[in-house]
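Z., the sequence and structure:
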Amino acid sequence: MRFESTPDPREQIGVGGYKRAYKVVRADGTPEVQLVMKHQYTNEQMKGLFYLNKIATLLFPGKIAAVKQGGNIHGDDGQVVSSQFVSHYVEPDAQHRDIQEFATQFDGDMEAAREYDESHGGRLEAITNDRYDRLYTDNAIEAFRAAYAAAGLSNPDGAVQIGWGAQDVVFTKDGDFTFVDVDVPWDEPEDIGADAYTDQCLRFVPAKLQEAINTLSEPKRTQALQYYARLEEQMRVAGFVV
């Protein structure tokens, strides 16, 4: 598909701290999610997002929303004006839809949403509390989060710590779940107050990720290694020594 710099506002289904989400329907009727980042990212970060997601979905099939494509829109001067990607659509559960509606109504300002909620019955607070209780007490989710970290898909020593929130997981009717939050695999040095591309910039741990890839059976292992090689190439282009 061709990315549009301004998707139809009527298609917006959610907004978070980093991105806006729009539900779009392909010509064959397949729903997808088009996500528009609130900030612009480099071409290497966006390509890296795509490759890291491919690896993550091979390691944890069905547990992470799959990115189908990603890229940047450039202005006449060659500068990035919009960073966007498309992922598979995961039908939201009732609570997820309610939180999305609050977030969209207040344009992602959840503090304002909570202030409004306090004077109108506290429904958002109740939903959010229930959501977090499930996120941090459900044994299956706990096991997944531990495996995700062990696979190096989060970096405890990185300058930026990304944690999943109430809006980042969708629960299915059979009790299963899919995490739908996707982000870039590293931060630019200037964004974290650093002078060079180091491991502190990364949102994943290369050594752990390679170990996890090597546990896959074929042909997934070969596929993941190919994606990792492409991820490394984007890191080299950006300025990392790998």
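The first helix runs from residue 43 to 59. The mean pLDDT is 92.

Let me know what you think.
H.
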